[in-house]
Amino acid sequence: MTAEAEVLGELRRLRARLPQLTGALAASADGLVLAHDTVDGAAESVAALTAAALGVGRRLTESTGQGGFRELLVRGEEGYVATYAAGGSAVLTLLAEPRINVGRLHLEARRSSARIGELVDGALNF
User: Fold this and answer.
1) Gyration radius (Cα) of the chain, Å
2) pLDDT tens digit string along 70-117?
3) Could you tell me which residues are beta bridge partners of residue 33?
4) 82, exposed or middle or buried, with CB in 10 Å at 0-12, 13-18, 19+?
5) Cβ neighbours around 121 below 10 Å, total
6) d(CA 19, CA 118)
7) In three state form, how does the secondary structure of 18-66 look?
8) How far apart (Å, rounded) are the C-alpha atoms in residues 49 and 100?
9) Among 36, 40, 104, 122, which residue's beta carbon has the most beta carbons within 10 A?
10) Run of H or E residues at 94
């Protein structure tokens, strides 16, 4: 099984554990889609916007002495966008309904982002 297929499997398992997710994608830190499980065709634009937000998040955490980037949560009127570091070269971005339990979102996403990071970093070091 390829790393892409394993990452996609992780995204699907995450969506099964969190039914309030409306989309999930793994992307490289520079905005290239690695795998996605979304209902619409916006994966590429979400990945590009995630890369931009990641740059701001990294700069903000480092310049304020908070260390390396770990996660970013944006709450809109219609739900959440959450981005998590996934190893050294990837990110996990999730779209969620407004009724999601944010604590559970963080718990499950942190586990999945760690697994995705292992898969992506392992494939890059192969």
Assistant:
1) 14
2) 999 999 999 999 999 999 899 999 999 999 999 999 999 999 999 999
3) 27
4) buried
5) 16
6) 24
7) CCCEEEEEEEECCCCEEEEEECCCCHHHHHHHHHHHHHHHHHHHHHCCC
8) 22
9) 36
10) strand 90-96
Residue tagged 């209902």 (tokens): 39
Q: How far is CA 65 from CA 36, 55, 71, 122, in A?
A: 33, 16, 15, 29
Please state, in angstroms and rounded to a whole number, the distance separating the CA atoms of residues 31 and 38: 16
Return the structure tokens found at 16. Answer: 């099964």
Closest CA to 116 of 12, 40, 6: 6
pLDDT digits (tens, 9 = 90+) for 10-37: 999 999 999 999 999 999 999 999 999 9
The pair of structure tokens assigned to 48 is: 């590009």
